[in-house]
Amino acid sequence: MAREFKYGSVKIANETIETIAKTAAEEINGVVELEELDSKELKKASNISVFEGFVTIDLNLVLRADVNVRKTIKHVQENVKRQVETMTGLLVKRVNVQVNSLKI
C-alpha cells in the first residue's frame, strides 16, 4: 500500500499490516493463537487485502473454551482495527474473524 505525502511517498508492505493485526489479536484475553492451516489448504492464519484504499483483514483464531466467543471476537475486531489504523494511518473496512477451534 503506497501513500503520497508532501515530501514523498510511503509504502507499507502487507506483511507489516499482517504482523500488526496478529499482535493486536493475540493481545486479547482468550485468544490462544492464530492457527496456521495445512499447506494443502490455501488459507493462512491471516490474510490482508487492500482495495480502493481500504484494508480488509481475515484472521483464523483458536480461542480458549472458557471465554464468551462473541465478546472475544468483538474485542479482537476492535483492537485489530484500532491498532492498524493508529500505526499505519490506513482505513480498515473489515476485520473478518473465523474461529477454527476451542482449546480447553
TrEMBL record:
Q: Which Pfam families match?
A: Asp23
Q: Which InterPro entries match?
A: Asp23 (IPR005531)
The entry sums up its family as follows: Belongs to the asp23 family.
Q: What is this protein called?
A: Asp23/Gls24 family envelope stress response protein
Source taxonomy: Bacteria, Bacillati, Bacillota, Tissierellia, Tissierellales
